[in-house]
């Protein structure tokens, strides 16, 4: 089983930057595709970015060019660098781990709050 703990959420002004971290308790190297999702009040959870076990990244259109997902398998940690933040990026951000083969192995963190406001 994998436990995920997010950190790095904060209050930031529009145009600012934040880096979120997701630390996994178990090894994610080679087995898990990782992702960041977000959920704003009253809205459904949505995909922000994913990174495969071999480092291939995909992004939601709304964050392309502003956000960068990365992973450090040696540290069992995934990052989300967020630049040029906008008010519409305000949400709780969740980390996800999805096993590449066994779909039932899907894990979520508890979330970290990102608020973009002046």
Task: Provide a short characterization of the protein structure.
By secondary structure, the protein is mostly beta strands.
Explain this structure to me?
Strands 2, 4, 5, 6, 9, 10 and 11 form a 7-stranded mixed beta sheet that branches. A 4-stranded antiparallel beta sheet has the order 1-3-8-7, with no helix packed on it. The protein has 118 residues and is an all-beta fold. It has strands spanning 4-7, 11-12, 18-24, 32-39, 46-51, 57-59, 67-72, 77-82, 91-99, 106-108, 112-116. The radius of gyration is 14 Å and the shape is globular.
Secondary structure class reads: mainly beta
Order of helices and strands: EEEEEEEEEEE
Give the strand content.
over 45%
Task: Identify low-pLDDT runs.
Answer: none
Distance between the termini: 40 Å
How confident is the prediction overall: mean pLDDT? 95
Oligomer: single chain
Share of helical residues = under 10%
**Helix count, per DSSP?**
0
Task: Summarize the main sheet.
Answer: 7 strands, mixed
Total beta strand runs:
11
What would the principal axes of the Cα set say about the shape?
Answer: globular
Radius of gyration: 14 Å
Produce the secondary structure layout.
Elements: E1 4-7, E2 11-12, E3 18-24, E4 32-39, E5 46-51, E6 57-59, E7 67-72, E8 77-82, E9 91-99, E10 106-108, E11 112-116
Parallel strand pairs: 2-11
Antiparallel strand pairs: 1-3, 3-8, 4-5, 4-9, 5-6, 7-8, 9-10, 9-11
Keywords:
single chain; 118 residues
């Amino acid at each position: 089983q994998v436990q995920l703990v997010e950190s790095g959420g904060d209050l930031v002004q529009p145009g600012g930057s934040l880096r979120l971290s997701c630390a996994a308790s178990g090894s994610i190297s080679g087995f898990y595709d990782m992702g960041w999702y977000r959920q704003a009040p009253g809205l459904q959870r949505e995909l922000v970015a994913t990174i495969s076990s071999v480092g291939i990244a995909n992004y939601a259109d709304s964050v392309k060019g502003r956000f960068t997902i990365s992973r450090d398998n040696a540290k069992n940690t995934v990052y989300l660098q967020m630049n040029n933040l906008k008010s519409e990026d305000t949400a709780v951000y969740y980390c996800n781990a999805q096993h590449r083969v066994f779909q039932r192995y899907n894990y979520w963190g508890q979330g970290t709050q990102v608020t973009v406001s002046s």
